[in-house]
Amino acid sequence: MSQESPPFGINVIGYSSANIGLGNALRQFVACFIERGIKISILDLDAGERSKFDNRLQYLTVEHAEELPYAVNLCIIGALDLSEFVLNPPKRLQTEGRLNVAFPWWELTDIPPHWSDVGRVFDALVTGSDFVRNTFSTHVPGVPILVAPHPLHIPNNVKPNRARFQLPKDKLLLYIGFDPGSDPARKNPFSAVEAFKRAFPSSLDCHLVIKVNNANDSDLKGKRLEYLERMYAYVNSDARIHLIQERLPYEELLSLYASCDVFMSLHRSEGLGLVPLEAMRLGKPVIATAWSGNMSYMNYLNSCLVSYEFKEIGDSYSYSKENLGINGFWAEPDIDQAAAWLRKLVEDSQFRLQLGLKAAADAKKYHEQASKTEFVDELKAIWESREFLPQRDRESLINQARESKLRFEYDKYLSKMSPFERFVHKTKQELDRHLLWRFRKTEL
Fold first, then answer.
1. pTM over cut 0.85
2. Is 440 among the domain residues?
């Protein structure tokens, strides 16, 4: 192999300091890379107001993309941002002579058509669960797709501290959480609130803790703000509901988790479901929808799984047909069953204890397997055999992805028109193509 080739190591590109799930995921994987002695360098992408929240990896971070020294570019990013990353990558990011790998997180079984072309620009894809892998493997042919189970390091100093969060000492606490800057329709917190109210319409023995992440972001508007205001109305209507909006360092966030007794995630879909996994690692019983990425680590022995029906995606600003151009679907969990599980956990302390112990044991095994980061060994094998692999015309693939994105944006533009407006638009196009161009003045 060429002596000019960069040394094997990983250039991690993502939101390494941000107070978002993608940032936490990146930090968890980097911790495993460090434990294994893998050479790494980090480019911290801008997440606006959420950046510079956790600076523990600052010593590994470079200022400019051209400073990334290693053979593998690994971009840990949300799938919604893949097109932008491919078509407008970080300035002076070196891609030639590197193994360019995307680690996209996604929550549906389908992807917009132009993402298939975007995905083929990469030399390999890494996915955080079998659920995500199955989605991309059916839509991005010809690209190696690897699975990387999500590791989860728990700091040693995590312990319950209800006084810190002004929570009642003598009540059983149910926890739910969401981020209004993401799409709450997917996290579905209002169904969890409804399950709590159905389970305990008047009892004062069980209280509900709602953690809202990034509630004070200045860019919250439209439906995002509507979701938040709707949650405020729930909180103000019931003294048993406790709202926490403070931005917490990871150790303190886990201390909040440790202060609660039961967790509920009536999500409609998850790429993985990090909060339920964190709760299980802390020995907490979890009630969760029995579908999507959380089934990578959940089963009927370690969790209270809730049945569901599939439904078309409706009131969602991130996953709607209008936004993605696909007829997506996700799960609608059974609220009555969730309420029944909640009553069981509250009334049967022995069952609650045993389920929590099983959850902790299984989540620990999952972490131990994930922390091996065996997908890195696969990436190294792909890198070392690159001379024997088919040559790919990266520039041509990027151009194809760009054309696909333009077609997608044009179709989305047309979809917002009324039938009459589309007719007028198409008629003008045809007239311009076949007739009107003749009457334009030719530029000298």
1. yes
2. no
